[in-house]
Amino acid sequence: IALADHYVAIEDYAAAAEALGKALELDHDPPPQRLLAYPDLLAMAGENEKALEAAEQLEPEFYGDIVRARVLLNERKPRQALDRLDVVLRQWPNNAAARYYAARAAEQAGDLDRAIEEYRQSIRAGAAFSDAGLRLARLHEAEGAFETALFAAQRHLEAHPGDPEGVLLAVQLSQRAPHIPIPELLAPLQRPALWARAVPIRATAAAERGGSGAAVALVRSDPRLDLTHPRDAAALRTLVIHLMNVAKQDEAQLAVEAALAAHPDDGQFHAIHGLILERQGAAPQVQREVFERALALDPEHAPALLALAKLSARSGDREGALALYDRAAAADPVDPGAPRAAAALLAQSGRADEAEQRLEEHLREHAYDAKAAMQLADLRLARGAASDATLELAKRAMRFRGGSEAHELLVRVHRARGEDELAAKALREADARNFDARAD
User: Is 127 left (phi over 0), alpha (psi -120 to 50) or beta?
Assistant: First the structure.
């Protein structure tokens, strides 16, 4: 059981299911929650048939329905999953797992109001069961409801103390709602590696308030950082970006040279060197050599993968670019840059169907990505599909602060649907916000 918990923590669900299966063989009277966890882990590992077989052994039957709903989510059938979970929730309304999967299903089906409510109910029923608090915080953050998002992040951290992604999200939200004290939840920032990851977040907030010069001052004045140490490479990257924003390329170059002199075999520092070359407009082959050196030292370094993907796309190597975008997305699942860029490349290559599939897959996990929602809606409009699903994407982009582009998209979708009055209403609302949403 301890081994299964370990594998869950590192997200190796197949190994977790195998370990828990062995534990169940040794336990002649396992508790119901453990019996339910086994097929759930199989479903998380993508072992759908085995999960369904194990679910048949569960009693009462609605235990098995939770697993069947989880499999339906794997099969990209969120509305069917939601229908099955509705049956479960009538009999077991305070089950954290059923509430969580209902939230995931609603999110994937585009019913974001229900997703938010189900995440809240899942947290109330058992915040430790899942990352419901983290997902809820991200949805509220995308809406611009920063205080509400911070409260959700707090609930997540209370149930998952020290979770790095939760801590970093709380840092980001605390920049937007600084009057809400959460010092005890941010105690893990005392760990040097996590502090370095928080620096770019704080620097971005400083730049929003006072420009890139303020971000440079924040990084340089931090006594806890050693910008020649690999642990603090994220902070160095941030410093370099903002130095170049204020036309201090020489200082950026010196900072990277010092880091490379101290650790010449660190891939992160080579990737930052490549960033400088990219911003300076160096020859593509020169850039490529540096980024390839970075990947030789650190094969899963997302910024280097993304940079090489862009170079490959520009050189006409579209398949190579797509493969690199996939690797970049796997290396940094939180960053939406790679999935969006891959979809754009596919669309430019006349492979709009594949572009749509990629965006749909991305939005399954990142429903709050307004730009991806707009990309997908545009692709659907281009083939004449002004369906309810396309309209939902346009409204989603509005909800998640897509700005003037989202308003313009909503106008175009209504017009394509023959809804002239609704288009005019959207246009008036855009005017009220000083957006230019007049479609050509």
Answer: alpha
Residues whose CB falls within 8 Å of the CB of residue 9, separated by 6 or more in sequence, listed in order: none
Give pairs for 311-314: CB < 8 Å, separation 24+: 311/284, 311/287, 313/341, 313/345, 314/284
Distance, in Å, from the CA atom of 340 to the CA atom of 359, rounded to the nearest integer, reads 7
Residue pLDDT, tens place only, 353-369: 999 999 999 999 999 99
Task: Note the Cα 191 to chain centre separation in Å.
Answer: 23
Nearest to 1 by CA among 29, 37, 32: 37
Q: Which residues contact 155 (CB under 8 A, 6 or more apart)?
A: 123, 127, 133
- Within the chain, what is the greatest distance between any pair of CA atoms? 70
Single-letter residue type at 133: G
Using alpha carbons, select from 203, 121, 126 the residue that is nearest to residue 160: 126
Q: Quote the pTM value.
A: 0.90
Residues 6+ apart with CB under 8 A from 207: 214, 215, 242, 245
- Using 50, 70 and 90 to split pLDDT, how confident is the model at 434? low
pLDDT, tens digit, 9 for 90 and up, residues 289-347: 999 999 999 999 999 999 999 999 999 999 999 999 999 999 999 999 999 999 999 99
Identify which of 83, 93, 168 has the alpha carbon closest to the alpha carbon of residue 124: 93
- Taking CB atoms within 8 Å and a gap of at least 24, the contacts of 122-129 are 122/96, 122/97, 123/152, 123/155, 123/156, 123/159, 124/94, 125/94, 125/95, 125/96, 125/99, 126/96, 127/96, 127/155, 127/156, 127/158, 127/159, 127/160, 128/159, 128/160, 129/96, 129/97, 129/100
